[in-house]
Every structure is written in C-alpha cells, then in structure tokens.
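Quick check before the chapter quiz. The format below is the same one you will see on the exam, so make sure you can read both the input and the output lines.
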Amino acid sequence: MRRRLAALAAFAVFALGASSAQAANEDPLGDLIMSVVTGAIPGVPGWNLRATLYHAGAKGVGALDSLGCKVVAMRTVAVDRNLIPRRSILFIKETVGLPMPDGGKHDGYWYASDIGGAIKGERIDLFTGSGARSMQPMTAINMAKLSAVKVGDFKGCPPA
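Here is the expected output.
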C-alpha cells in the first residue's frame, strides 16, 4: 500500500508539473523509480555511503550500542549522528539477500542505534556479529559505495 501511495504521489507531481525552479531541483521520475526499488516514500533522506564493518571481540567493541541497547548482528549500524539521526531505520539495498546468522536472508533493513568516534560524514559501520568470521558474508558487496534510504524511525531498542 505504501508503495502505491508513494508512486501515486510521485506521479501526481510529475503529471501536474512543478515550477521551473522546482523542476530543476526535483526528479519526480527518479523519486518514483527509487520508491519502487526501496519501498521508501519519495523525498525522504537518502545517502551514498562508504561502509566499514565491526564485530564483537574487536578491540573497543562492547555488547551495547550508544543507546544502551544490545547490538544486533546484521541489523545494528553506527552512523554520524550529524548526518543520519540515531533511531533511524535504514534500507540498504546492497545488503538484500545476504545470509543472516539465523540462516535466513537479509531484507536490507538496518537500525541506526550506534555511533563511533571514527564515523564522520558519509560513512557507516555495520555490525556483523561475533568474531572476525561474521564479516565474511559482507565481502560479497562493494563497501565503498552503499546507498541508504531512511524509511522510518524506531522507539526504544532495535528489534533483535
């Protein structure tokens, strides 16, 4: 339903036209295509990011995120809170289909519940689980260029 509403809204903007100043800054057709691909509502924040990985057992990595919640393998992401607000739900399309610790496939949704001193600007840090071996599934994607779209917010701690 959300995709249909997003597509309808983008189509209405495109079909009805916008002022020439708005048309230069907006891409309704691009928004429509991106909303179909990601399930996001057109006009929501999105970023092209460089990613690094972190895991439990690494020096300085604890069991809790910056919100005081337990870090969740293949779900917790550390962000620069000046760019991406904590408590944001992010969709990272490049992670769709990656193996999850429970044997399932990743749906692309991550929870911005952590920060790090080295996470500045358009950079994120993805938590992969326990030990360096947990990072192996992530080698299948290009960590230098990930696209993230904010698709919502969460309250409390991210779901485990």
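If your answer matched, good. The chain has a mean pLDDT of 81.
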